[in-house]
Amino acid sequence: MIAVNLDVVLAQRKMTLTQLSREVGVTVVNLSLLKTGKAKGVRFSTLDKICQALDCQPGDLLEWRPDPQP
């Protein structure tokens, strides 16, 4: 599974989701879905804007983790 560490990077940058939303031009709702891992996907153009705004690499935001065993 792919885990999203957007909340961690936002905290490190002392930035809110609302501030990020304004900078990248993506709604808070869509960023919230991404942050909570409920988004089905993310466009590369959106990922690019987020990385620019947060001065980070895609790998700082996305992490692969093995699926939990039932």
From TrEMBL:
It comes from Bittarella massiliensis. GO terms for molecular function: DNA binding. Gene3D superfamilies: lambda repressor-like DNA-binding domains. Pfam families: HTH_26 (PF13443). This is Helix-turn-helix domain-containing protein. Residues 12-61 form the HTH cro/C1-type domain. It comes from the Bacteria. SUPFAM superfamilies: lambda repressor-like DNA-binding domains (SSF47413).
